[in-house]
Amino acid sequence: xxxxxxxxxxxxxxxxxxxxxxxxxxxxxxxxxxxxxxxxxxxxxxxxxxxxxxxxxxxxxxxxxxxxxxxxxxxxxxxxxxxxxxxxxxxxxxxxxxxxxxxxxxxxxxxxxxxxxxxxxxxxxxxxxxxxxxxxxxxxxxxxxxxxxxxxxxxxxxxxxxxxxxxxxxxxxxxxxxxxxxxxxxxxxxxxxxxxxxxxxxxxxxxxxxxxxxxxxxxxxxxxxxxxxxxxxxxxxxxxxxxxxxxxxxxxxxxxxxxxxxxxxxxxxxxxxxxxxxxxxxxxxxxxxxxxxxxxxxxxxxxxxxxxxxxxxxxxxxxxxxxxxxxxxxxxxxxxxxxxxxxxxxxxxxxxxxxxxxxxxxxxxxxxxxxxxxxxxxxxxxxxxxxxxxxxxxxxxxxxxxxxxxxxxxxxxxxxxxxxxxxxxxxxxxxxx
Length: 433
What we know:
Layout: H1 11-17, H2 19-27, H3 35-45, E1 82-86, E2 89-92, E3 110-111, E4 127-132, E5 138-141, H4 142-148, E6 151-159, E7 182-191, H5 192-199, E8 207-212, H6 230-233, E9 239-244, E10 247-248, E11 258-260, E12 273-279, E13 294-296, E14 311-313, E15 320-323, E16 330-332, E17 338-346, E18 352-358, E19 366-367, E20 369-370, E21 380-387, E22 392-402, E23 426-432
Parallel strand pairs: 4-12, 16-23
Antiparallel strand pairs: 1-2, 2-3, 4-5, 6-7, 7-9, 8-12, 9-10, 9-11, 13-14, 15-17, 17-21, 18-19, 18-22, 20-21, 22-23
């Protein structure tokens, strides 16, 4: 008679559930790596581990913490993005593809909430309405927006509110984004505040509600309809975008016109933009309230249920960095002792004041050079040179610090059911030799 069924768990699950026990089971390790445990780990990683004495107990090496092999998007006009979901279509940009100062359209991540609408027959005739708590409701075509208001061109970061979600333990709901749900394209459009002022804001206008042409997969109502405080709507960098990198906006990315609300969750940057209403009270559209794009005011027990009653809307995104010069898992020639590296860093409405890198599992950190942003809400280039004492297995750890002194934490903090705001330090494995 067969015995009871037993669910096999992956190494990642073992480390997530009980790191110390996982160390003992997988490597026979009880404290500092040595002897047979060190040899076994070196074989698994493909080389000696020069800084093994600094590897924290209960930490699965980055080279082994990749989980199932990712699927990649196969779409004309798009790079080899990591497929996160097909209905709706969502795809993440690998960090090594984010090396451009201005993100090309083909490398721009995809975040949809519903069905992609059909292309506009006449993009310049597409209408945007401004109504609600205004003195003069407006309906303006794209052509009228361009001719009536000053055009601006800015490099603006846009990041999914769930970027970094895969860093949470236990796993939160939603697409398990790594660090690649981010872009910094060059957007041309008109300032939203210019259009709102033309409509004549009433004193009661305190919030917005944004609307687009995309529908929910059920075909019942809009895919998403979010809103923000009027202060962010009136920010000089919040724009109604008409062009992306000097070209018409691609259909997948919101053509012919979309909002760009830089530094805040990308869900506010309404694609296929059709209407903005000014409100006296917070918007109640799909994607508002409860736990949607909201984070706990006070820490909650990870994995617990919560209706979000005491949550607050997520606004400025947390500080984050990516390594773009070398992909995770890179193999370097034997004898490599110095390596020039670079990446990008950003911090929502703030700026990045420092990026530090470690190659000895966080025992010591080295400051990188951080360039100033070309304009507010653009990401910042960081770069520097690191050294390897020998051949073997190394991990490049990188972390950024924002202008208010907040640094990326070692582990994702402030767990929430839908996984917003996870920004732990990142690790890239490299093998020398």
